[in-house]
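Convert to structure. Protein one:
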Amino acid sequence: MKLSVLALGLAAGLALAAPAGAQGAATRDPAQIQAGTYAVDPSHTQAVFTVTHFGFSPYTGIFSDVSGSLELQPSKPAESRLKVTIPVKSLYTPSQHMMDSLKSDKWLDVAQFPEMTFTSTKVTPEGKDKAKVTGDLTLHGVTKPVTLDVTLVGAGANPINKKVTVGFEAKGTIKRSDFGVKTFVPAISDEVHLVLNGAFERKD
């Protein structure tokens, strides 16, 4: 499940919509980032997936209304902790037929498994702005360990609402059959590419 193309388009749109002086306010220097407890900003956080459709083309969907928290320790990143919850019913694709199918019991079964969650268990820094974050992903009623490659996008005061904000991009790959979602494997790829574009606002 892949998000990067959508993310680039949305980023461009947001940049055009931002007021004068709003750009360039963020930093990627961990020494300037405030430690503390952050909450997901659901308006600017997305979870994207991409699979290969019958070998013809990538097919992407997006989840929204993400919630969760981040315990951020920039000076001791290994002590940071993340937990996010994603409502499966928020799934969007350009096709209503595909959305209905993916939410049915043949695929994600929203009625029985309304949420997916990721809870970090280990953070391994890789340079000043990257880390590998390992955690438990619960999807379709199954919990498996997953490792995400996380990159700091930027941090600072949001120029519109003035809230201290930090943003990350996280990427990973899973096999959907490991989570009991086996419909049309391998014609529709078992491998699913995941991207989480996460914005977090610091709690006062």
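Protein two, convert as well:
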Amino acid sequence: MRFPLLLTIFHPLAALASSPHTPSETPSTLTTRDGIRLTYTQTGPRSGPPILFITGWRQAAIEWRQQSAYFSAAGFRVTTFDLRGHGESEEPSFGYRISRFAADLDDLLTHLNLHKVAIVGHSMGCSVAWAWWDQYPASHKRVAKFVFADQPAAMVKNPAWSDEYAAEIAAVFAPLELFGLANDISAQLEPLVRGMFTPTVSETDLQWVLEQNRKMSDENSGALLVDHAFADWRDVLPRITVQSLVLAGEVSVFPPRGIEWVAQQIPGAESYTFTEAEKGSHFVFWENPERFNEVVEAFLRK
């Protein structure tokens, strides 16, 4: 697995601190059907078009702060939430599988009675959205658009696949490599997360993100990583029937070729690859929020 790096010229935390549009609404909670408390926050005008952000593996909803500020100021009704075991949500000893996270997402959509919502998923957040689409066809009417940011359809290479095909779909892990990572996640977390950013990401930013990551236990995050990485969504993508935008990064840990393959499988999907000059890392939404937000908003307003 490669960890490409580039220069950072923007300091997100400092910029946000001076923003007049920093989200400030008090977080709320809901209880899932299996009794787990999830924390969510809504900002922006109540009458605005709804947009829901889903984080990646081990990330906290607060990491969407630059999107919450931007889109709520632009008139959208923004919802972010902490996945089970993440951020400020309850961390039970069970349920660390994508199918359970999809059920939690359906509970949230039902609890908030969201309709015509645009769902933006990053990394594992895309997998949660794909699982939800697969498992809850009766709820499809709630969604108007999808944005899928930097997630392959399959992360682990099946030994029966050719190297060429694995590269085409960005299956970047060998099975034993993935288990090795999950079983040593305490030691591997910082280099793994650091590699998802550009080389000069400030230590302040990086350590803050790692602080959010460490709100989840290594044991639970390791179990989730295995379930997430071994999932295969190739048969779900052609069945997505709403307008979709697929985002890749030229210097992401996931080669953009594989993310663009995802776009090719979704009927009528649009795609955009953030260049190296645009700081197109796995965390482009953090490192270049202005460009990320601009691309997403242009798609949503079509």
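The beta strands are 28-31, 37-43, 50-54, 77-81, 117-122, 143-149, 243-249, 270-274. The radius of gyration is 18 Å.
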